[in-house]
Design a protein that fits this description.
The chain is mainly alpha-helical and 116 residues long. It has one domain. The chain has six helices and no strands.
Length: 116
């Protein structure tokens, strides 16, 4: 049964433990490209760098390309309910929280594909 990790670090360590970290990176590249928001995480990217680059990308999308940001969330299939619960008063914090929701959803896809 899938249990969503409580934070980014736990998610990434679980992905690495199950040898699915590269699949997670592939899935993120694929979904970002589907949303026409090309982000090309190299397969050699470290977890810390992945977290940082994703956060920066989401921050820029929220600030400068909001429609594309919403499209990305739709394509990745991030829960609208979870997004609405976030406090948007601090953009840096919001981008960090949305990055985690994106990683969590991408991890869920990779995990299910691996198990079933």
């Amino acid at each position: 049964m899938f249990v969503a990790p409580k934070n980014v670090d736990l998610l990434i360590s679980e992905a690495e433990k199950e040898a699915l970290y590269l699949k997670l990176v592939e899935q993120m590249n694929k979904d970002f490209n589907l949303a026409n928001e090309a982000i090309d995480f190299p397969m050699s990217i470290s977890p810390a760098e992945l977290k940082l680059q994703l956060h920066e990308k989401i921050y820029r999308l929220i600030q400068y390309k909001f429609t594309e940001y919403l499209n990305l969330l739709y394509i990745i299939d991030v829960s609208e309910e979870q997004i609405k619960k976030l406090d948007g008063s601090d953009l840096v914090l919001l981008a960090e929280q949305v990055s985690f929701l994106i990683l969590k959803r991408e991890w869920q896809k990779v995990w299910f594909r691996n198990k079933y």
